[in-house]
Please model this.
Amino acid sequence: MRYIIVFMLIPFLAVAQSSLDDAEQMLKKKQFVKAENLLSEYIKTHQNDIRSNELLGDAFGHQKKWDDAIVYYKKLTELDPTSADFHYKYGGALGMKALSVNKLAALGIIGDVKEAFLTAARLDPKHIDTRWALVELYMQLPGIIGGSKSKSLKYANELQALSKVDGYLAKGYIYEYDDEPEQAEKYYKLAISEGGSLNCYDKLTNLYEKKAQPDKAISNIEASGKDHHRNAMHYQIGKVCAEYNVQLDKGHQYLLTYIEKYSAVDGVPKAWAYYRLAQIEKHKRDKVRALKWIDKAINDLPKIEVFKEERTEIQRL
Model:
């Protein structure tokens, strides 16, 4: 009899598995509402199924429906209290809710955020994402409610023990947040030397741009091009040249290269390259060329207000 029951259950289990696989594919394709609808129906008859609760929480999270995501992530921590991932997701959803409400309401949430992340860190000494979350949390919280640079550095050191690149990036973040650009630069350079990922280069470039050091930013982007051959680099350099009115001829050439090699994978539409070329010609006081480029930008993306504002500025030359 037992074997007959198992045999009868096989088609049912296969259908259930198929539904969850379909939902997972929907999430990968960013079809979040469709995934939510499918999972909401499925979970009515599988209330304690861990995978469906996690996928539904993810579907809500992708839509920034934090209250709903919190419900399912919290349930996951109850279904499997030993999972660091579930406590991390729960803390993350709580943290995002805290950012979306007023400061007074956020104060009532922060304690639960910390508890969730600290629990995840305790459960898994090698959980990198949780330690990143704690680095950022302790830096961003005011001291009066538990913010602490020393605690942030503690978790940055734990990250460094797990992954030198993550540790260096975390320390760069801490010192950048604390307005110590020289220390931040030091650690971002160490991250580049250790890992050399595009993210490492971008962190240093962003620091230079924030501190109005465009020449350093351009040199760093060019250095990244030796390791990462991508057309987007040409736009990045042109953008810095245009925004800071430096190395204009170089910026002009890089932007033309970006336009020539452009494909959809580059991310930034060509209209923005036209806009940057217009800025460069404006800096050179060449009204005719500047108008030519800004008109091309507006023709491509007529709803972008900053293009129209730039045209007005150029008309005043």
Q: What stands out?
A: The mean pLDDT is 91. Residues 15-124 form a domain with the Serine Threonine Protein Phosphatase 5, Tetratricopeptide repeat fold (CATH 1.25.40.10). The radius of gyration is 25 Å.
